[in-house]
Structure to design on (561 residues):
């Protein structure tokens, strides 16, 4: 098997520091595989968000090598990064919805940036808002929406273009337990039915048990541990997407 | 908890890896905060374009004026017969006209009447100019059929030397050389003013683009992380810059043209022959019409560079 084709992401001895500060991530080496569901856990300040920034291409590492979709990110020219970003869906910790755009226009953003025909945009966004239960709020702007509604708009925006990898930073941090579980089910559905690789960062250990087929990556002071063997190659087969549970 | 509906299927043509296109029209309008044409930039551009139009109109008028004056005097020569005795002066003047008429290359010769000379000198000499108290040289206007040069002047001087001793021959253009120099200086001043105002326009657009970018930074970052390319983001900003600069350029162009036209009317009303040569022709008006277009182009290029530099700071 060609390793480069089998992997979605491969980190090799990656380190990250901001300016001249000490490294916030050190010696990260792991591989993420297609169709897997990963939880990234760790206490606040462990480096989860920094690792996610590397994953969704908001940051380059200070050292080490990263391959994504078989391409070397370190040597890749800046102009080619948008091509990779369009294969990712990101749910940011604070949602990062565009404040003056309606729920509909926020969800439509990735499609409009990709130049999708407006008729198809209308159909796809309508279906997606229906899926997250927000059809009746299509014209609402973020300021008038509850935290849970904004969260679902952010998720709809992240998955509207059917990304190959979905990255969510503390997606349940601002919602009640029932909504948190519902959001997790949305991620599972995407993982199971579309085969999207999902990476969810959370410090809520109770969530980890809610997705039985998930794999866990634990960060502690910028170092990664692997309690479920999630990073081991090849991954243990199981689950609808063909990937292993602990 | 309600059961989860099935994930909607993705319609054909919606792919995350689709080739990006630059947002246009309403699609682009949806990507940045709504703006109105009430900000300072259209006004600043309008004022600066109006100043450039006025400076350019002034510069072109001065150029035309200088060219007309040069053309009128290029082949003209003045011959002065300096003789205090009025009778002898008249006789030598007539003799000079006769000699001049016989010189090859002379197109026309006119002895300026004494009354006309007196009228011309009256502002400086008062009634003494007409009273004969002050001896005034006889003046002969000579028009050659080619441009005056040193050899032509020397040939006339040689021809007159025997018959009219002491006759003074001058190219009429030489009398206006200081005026030509002053006009040239004013043209350079107009060019310098245009360069300064163009720089000020670029600086204003640079500041405006930077401010607009800073105000929309969060949105730009979101677009960036959702896969927008730098040209896509720049295109969205340039759309607003284009709209504002076109509005400002049209307003400024109209103001500048109106001011130039009004000034032209005022000068035309003076009825002076020399000032009349400073009118603007069709080519001049085309140059003036191109100034707002150049202003829009300058604004777009400046904004494009500013945004490209700002985007370079993002991964």
């Amino acid at each position: 098997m060609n390793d480069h084709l089998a992997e979605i992401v491969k980190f090799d001895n990656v380190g990250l520091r901001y300016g001249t500060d000490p490294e916030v991530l050190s010696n990260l080496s792991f591989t993420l595989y297609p169709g897997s569901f990963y939880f990234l856990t760790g206490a606040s300040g462990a480096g989860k968000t920094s690792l996610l920034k590397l994953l969704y291409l908001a940051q380059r590492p200070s050292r080490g090598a990263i391959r994504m979709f078989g391409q070397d990110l370190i040597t890749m020219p800046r102009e080619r990064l948008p091509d990779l970003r369009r294969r990712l869906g990101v749910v940011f910790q604070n949602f990062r919805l565009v404040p003056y755009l309606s729920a509909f226009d926020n969800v439509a953003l990735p499609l409009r940036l990709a130049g999708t025909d407006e008729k198809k945009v209308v159909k796809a966004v309508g279906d997606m808002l229906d899926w997250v239960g927000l059809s009746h709020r299509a014209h609402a702007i973020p300021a008038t929406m509850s935290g849970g509604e904004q969260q679902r708009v952010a998720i709809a925006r992240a998955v509207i273009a059917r990304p190959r990898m979905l990255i969510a930073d503390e997606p349940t941090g601002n919602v009640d337990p029932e909504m948190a579980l519902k959001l997790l089910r949305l991620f599972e559905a995407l993982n199971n039915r579309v085969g999207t690789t999902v990476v969810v960062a959370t410090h809520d250990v109770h969530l980890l048990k809610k997705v039985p087929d998930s794999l866990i990556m634990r960060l502690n002071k910028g170092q990664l541990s692997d309690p479920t063997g999630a990073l081991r190659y090849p991954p243990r087969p199981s689950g609808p997407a063909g990937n292993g549970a602990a | 908890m309600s059961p989860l509906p099935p994930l909607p299927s993705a319609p054909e043509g919606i792919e995350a890896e689709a080739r990006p296109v630059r947002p246009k029209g309403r699609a682009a309008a949806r990507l940045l905060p709504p703006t109105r044409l009430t900000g300072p930039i259209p006004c600043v551009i309008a004022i600066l374009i109006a100043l450039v139009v006025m400076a350019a109109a002034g510069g072109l008028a001065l150029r035309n004026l200088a060219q007309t004056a040069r053309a009128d005097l290029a082949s003209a020569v003045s011959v002065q017969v300096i003789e205090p005795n009025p009778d002898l002066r008249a006789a030598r003047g007539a003799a000079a006209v006769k000699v001049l008429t016989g010189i090859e290359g002379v197109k026309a010769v006119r002895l300026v009447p004494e009354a006309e000379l007196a009228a011309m000198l009256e502002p400086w000499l008062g009634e003494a100019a007409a009273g004969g108290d002050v001896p005034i040289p006889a003046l002969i206007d000579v028009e050659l059929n080619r441009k005056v040069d040193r050899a032509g002047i020397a040939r006339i001087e040689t021809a007159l030397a025997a018959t009219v001793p002491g006759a003074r021959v001058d190219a009429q253009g030489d009398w206006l050389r200081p005026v030509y120099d002053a006009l040239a200086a004013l043209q350079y001043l107009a060019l310098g003013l245009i360069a300064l105002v163009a720089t000020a326009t670029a600086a204003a657009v640079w500041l405006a683009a930077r401010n607009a970018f800073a105000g929309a930074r969060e949105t730009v970052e979101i677009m960036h992380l959702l896969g927008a390319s730098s040209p896509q983001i720049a295109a969205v900003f340039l759309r607003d810059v284009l709209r504002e600069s076109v509005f400002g350029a049209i307003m400024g162009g109209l103001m500048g043209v109106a001011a130039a036209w009004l000034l032209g009317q005022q000068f035309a009303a003076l009825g002076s022959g020399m000032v009349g040569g400073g009118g603007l022709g069709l080519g001049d008006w085309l140059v003036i019409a191109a100034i707002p277009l150049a202003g829009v182009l300058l604004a777009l290029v400046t904004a494009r560079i500013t945004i490209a530099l700002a985007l370079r700071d993002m991964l």
